[in-house]
Amino acid sequence: MAHGKPFDEESSGKYVPLRDEDDPRLEMFNRPLPCFGCGIGWFSLLLGFVCPLLWYYAAILYFCNYYQKDPRERGGLAASATAALICTVAIIIFVLVMYV
After folding, report:
1. Helix (H) and strand (E) counts for the chain?
2. Which of UniProt's keywords are assigned here (predicted)?
């Protein structure tokens, strides 16, 4: 990125990996997220409407701090944990209405 050029001459238009001498941990975010690039949490949220057990799986990952490995996963895992909570409350209300 020297002299204002977006890529090196030798890379011929390909992306160049980012390097940060101050914090080498930032290089781990150059890789795409699993599950087609949207992350485990968002993927579980979407597929949870078909199989709600995926919301509980993502909630377990959220409460076990899986997002410490990759902080980009935190939002999706939190959304799935919220969906699992809403689903649980709805099931409890349904059971109470049916049997009480």
Report:
1. 3, 0
2. Membrane, Transmembrane, Transmembrane helix
